[in-house]
Design brief:
mainly alpha; 78% helix; 0% strand; globular
Length: 309
């Protein structure tokens, strides 16, 4: 358990650096012209040629390696909630980059986040299953996969018909669902590879992971570009661990302590954790928006920037 927590903590720190770099890149990307697939193609080209975004991608690679190691041995119900600590690390990194101390409210929210996480992990006692169950149950996995696909399609479709703030929130919901699914697929792939590389290369899980991960990266940047970060970042940060808990229980049979006292403490810890994550990520996003406006008026406020359709 200690190893899983340390690996998750290291992954969190690296992901936090990636988040800072990507948020910076989203605020400095050029305007994208064109319509439909042409606009999407130009958006992807601008994204992959941006040095800050590429730096974030390198950090993502390092974070994913650490996350893979953590998921291989630990429960999704432990690893994914641990990743919410990226907000605390991001708070420190942003304060360092901006040469500003965090506000009292940010410090209190960070402490509440850590406290809620510790309470939830301590009360839940979540543990990863061993043996064949570690690969996940087939039928629940299919149901989760279909449900996630439908959710992503609905979010993307509706996002085309609403304003910038709702558009960003809807795309962020799709990103959170994809992030949770990629974590589950990573865990499954780590078990499949135990039977050899050829077994992994012939598995559908590997290619589904690649597709879902790539789609999540694109939708993540689209969500940041579509509207204010305060409309997207809190949604991703709070829904990802929630979706992960659902997948962990449904697909991998991860069971939390079910005694009345434990359920009460789990509920309190999870509520404090998610509320703190939402509030802290909203504050962080607003700081990022203010910085983007201060760095150059050419881009304009996030609400006024051209959005993808």
């Amino acid at each position: 358990m200690t190893t899983v927590l340390l690996l998750s903590l290291a992954a969190t720190a690296v992901f936090a650096l990636s988040s800072v770099l990507k948020h910076r890149s989203a605020g400095t990307m050029p305007e994208i012209t064109g319509t439909g697939l042409v606009r999407v193609r130009r958006f992807v080209q601008a994204m992959v040629s941006h040095p800050l975004w590429l730096g974030g991608l390198v950090c993502d690679a390092g974070g994913i390696i650490l996350q893979v190691l953590a998921l291989r041995e630990g429960a999704i119900s432990v690893v994914q909630p641990m990743l919410t600590l990226a907000l605390v690390f991001s708070l420190v990194l942003n304060a360092w980059f901006l040469k500003q101390r965090p506000s009292g409210r940010e410090v209190l929210l960070a402490l509440a986040l850590v406290g809620g996480l510790v309470l939830f992990l301590w009360a839940s006692g979540a543990a990863a299953p061993k043996g064949p169950e570690a690969k996940g149950a087939r039928n629940p996995a299919i149901v989760v996969g279909v449900g996630t696909t439908m959710l992503v399609l609905v979010c993307v479709t509706v996002a085309r018909r609403v304003g910038p703030r709702r558009k960003a929130a809807l795309l962020a919901t799709a990103v959170a669902a994809l992030y949770a699914c990629t974590a589950a697929l990573i865990k499954t792939c780590t078990r499949i590879v135990e039977h050899g590389i050829p077994e992994l290369l012939l598995s559908w899980q590997l290619y589904t992971l690649i597709i879902a991960g790539g789609l999540a990266l694109v939708l993540n940047q689209m969500a940041f570009q579509a509207g204010p970060l305060s409309s997207s970042l809190p949604v991703i940060a709070s829904l990802d661990p929630l979706f992960s808990l659902i997948i962990g229980g449904a697909v991998y049979g991860e069971r939390l302590h079910s005694a009345p006292k434990d359920l009460l403490l789990e509920g309190i810890g999870l509520a404090v954790l998610l509320a703190s994550v939402f509030a802290l990520s909203r504050l962080s996003a607003r700081h990022q928006q203010d910085d983007a406006v201060a760095d150059g008026p050419a881009e304009g406020p996030a609400d006024e920037r051209p959005v993808l359709t």
